[in-house]
Design brief:
The protein is α/β, with parallel strands linked by helices. It is built from six helices and ten strands. A hairpin with a 6-residue loop joins strand 2 and strand 3.
Length: 232
């Protein structure tokens, strides 16, 4: 995916992000797109597209957006949506595997689905389940559905989650992926002001290599990262 070299003045050098990449930490992300509200930059190393920190919402405004969500384990449609991650991940788990749902939101549902399948679950959410002690435990699998696009510091958070996995563990993510600059311009996903990081397949390949994990793409918008088993 080639970054845009657009700039306010034709023929001038490309604009560079004022911030280091929030995933891999390097400077030099190139201007990728601008809409009516904010700019987007593309990292030349990990391919993350991100919004600069100056355009992040304050905590109160961010939570106000999340409070409008009406997700519930009683909603069959929401369960079907989460099934895109639940089905392939559950098929890879041993009976009784223990999990953490990170960023569970105001209506935890994926954790309920795994518990119904016999997997004990913990949940964490900075707004709705702020229990930092669960982030000190170890798990056989960790899920984060529609979460990574909201993270201000995805590099730090994803490294922390990977460190909480036991050998052979799985990190299951669900987020829509950047496919091209042309598609990005008209993409509904960037209209949510709480979405500040946008991943592509190239980004997840970089992340897997960085974390020493293997990556799979079992379904649309779904990514599974597998931590090596020390005995393998």
């Amino acid at each position: 995916m080639k970054p845009s070299l657009s700039s306010p003045d034709a023929g001038s050098p490309p604009r560079i992000s004022p911030d280091p990449c929030p995933l891999c930490g390097i400077d030099g992300a190139v201007h990728f797109h601008r809409d009516a509200r904010r700019d987007y930059y593309h990292c030349p190393r990990c391919a993350l597209v991100h919004v600069p920190a100056a355009n992040h919402l304050p905590s109160e405004a961010e939570r106000a957006v999340y409070d409008q969500h009406e997700n519930s384990p009683d909603d069959p449609g929401y369960r079907r949506f989460l099934g895109r991650l639940f089905i392939p991940l559950q098929a890879r788990l041993a009976p009784g595997a223990q999990g953490l749902d990170f960023g569970a939101g105001p209506g935890p549902t994926l954790s309920v689905m795994f518990e119904e399948a016999g997997h004990p679950m913990a949940i964490y959410d900075p707004f709705y389940a702020p229990h930092p002690e669960v982030l000190e435990r170890r798990y056989d699998f960790i899920t984060a559905t529609e979460v990574v696009e909201h993270l201000f510091a995805p590099g730090h958070e994803l490294e922390r989650l990977a460190s909480r996995l036991r050998p052979g563990g799985w990190l299951g993510l669900m987020t829509k992926r950047v496919t091209s600059e042309e598609a990005f311009v008209g993409w509904h996903y960037i209209l949510d002001p709480t979405h500040v990081c946008f991943f592509s397949e190239a980004t997840f390949h970089w992340l897997a290599k960085h974390l020493g994990m293997r990556v799979e793409f079992p379904a649309a918008d779904v990514v599974l990262l597998h931590k090596p088993d020390l005995e393998a």
